[in-house]
Amino acid sequence: MRESINPDIIKSINFFSEFKEWYYKIIKDFNFDEQKDKLGRDLLLNILLDSQNYENFHQNLENIKNIIQKNKFITIFGCGPSLEKTFDKISQNSKDKFPINQLIIAIDGAAVFLDEKGIKSNLIFTDLDGFLPEKFSYFRKLSNYIVIHAHGDNVDILKKISNEVKIANNIIGTTQVEPKSIILNPGGFTDGDRVLYFLKNFIRPNQKIFFIGMDFGEVVGRYSKPEYSENQKAKPIKLKKLQYAEKLLEWIIKKLKNEIYFINSKISSNYVQIISIKQYLNFFSAL
C-alpha cells in the first residue's frame, strides 16, 4: 500500500512562492517556455509515480536529512575549470587522497570527475546533461541519492532513463515551475546554485559548507558536458546562466546562518568568503 504524502514535508521544502519572481525574470530573459518546463515536471512525476521512489518518499527525505546532518563539513563540487587543479592540490597536501570525513556532493558532471578520482558522491544534483544517459544507472547505484531536475530542455533524456528511474528507490525530483505532488521546487536555477537551495531545508547552523570548482568566468570546465575533452570558452547563454547562478547564490547565502566558503573561486560577493587550499585543509586537521 502506498503511503500518503505529508503536506507539511512538502511545504517545508518547496520555495516556489518565494522564488517565482526570480523564475519569471529568468524565463523572460532567456525566452524559456514555461509550458515546456511543466511538461518536464509532469513527465518526471509520472515516472516517479511508477517507481519505489513514491512509496519511499518520506523515508528518502528523512534519509537525506540524516546524511546531510551527519557531518560537520559539506563539500560541494562544481564543474568549473578550477575543479581539477584544486582537487589535485588538495590531494597533494592532504594525508588522505581527499578529506572524506564529510559529506561529498557532486553537481552534475562533477560526479564523473570524482568517480575517476575514486571518491564517492553521497549526493548528486543533476539536470542530466553532465553525463551520458547510459551512465545514469552506474551513478544512481554509486551514490546514496540523486536529485534529478526536470525542465523543458531535458524531456528526451528523462524518457531515455525512465526505466532505470522506475526500478530505483533513491531518486528525488525537482522542478522550476509550480511543484506538484512529490516533485519539489526548493528554488534555484542552475544545478550549482540549486544545491544550496535544497540544502537550506536540512542543514544545521553550525555546519560549514565548501564549494570547489565553482567558477563564474568565461571558461566552462570540461566535466560540464560528456562531449567536452577540454575546457571550453563559455557561450553567451552559458555565461548569462553563470551570472544568474552567482546572483542566486548570494541571495540565498544572505538568508543562511552557515559559514560558506569558496575555494580558489573568483566569485565577487561581499557575502562569500574565499579561502585557500591550506585554509580548507586546516579545518580538517583539527578533527
| Secondary-structure element pattern, one letter each | HHHHHEHEHEHEHHEEHEEEHEEH
Show unreliable segments: none
* Secondary-structure-derived class: alpha/beta
Radius of gyration: 18 Å
Helix fraction by DSSP (H/I, runs of at least 4): 40-55%
Strand order of the largest sheet: 6-5-4-3-2-1-7-10-11
Tell me about the largest β-sheet.
9 strands, parallel
Q: What overall form do the CA principal axes indicate?
A: globular
Total discrete domains: 1
Number of helices: 13
Structural commentary:
By secondary structure, this protein is an alpha/beta fold. It has one domain (7-285). Helix content is 45%, strand content 15%. It contains 13 helices and eleven strands. The model has no long low-confidence stretch (mean pLDDT 93).
How do the strands and helices of this protein lay out in sequence?
Layout: H1 7-13, H2 16-30, H3 34-49, H4 52-55, H5 57-70, E1 73-77, H6 83-93, E2 103-107, H7 110-116, E3 123-126, H8 136-142, E4 145-150, H9 155-160, H10 162-166, E5 171-175, E6 183-184, H11 191-199, E7 208-212, E8 219-220, E9 232-233, H12 236-253, E10 259-263, E11 273-275, H13 277-285
Parallel strand pairs: 1-2, 1-7, 2-3, 3-4, 4-5, 5-6, 7-10, 10-11
Antiparallel strand pairs: 8-9
Helix pairs in contact: 11-12
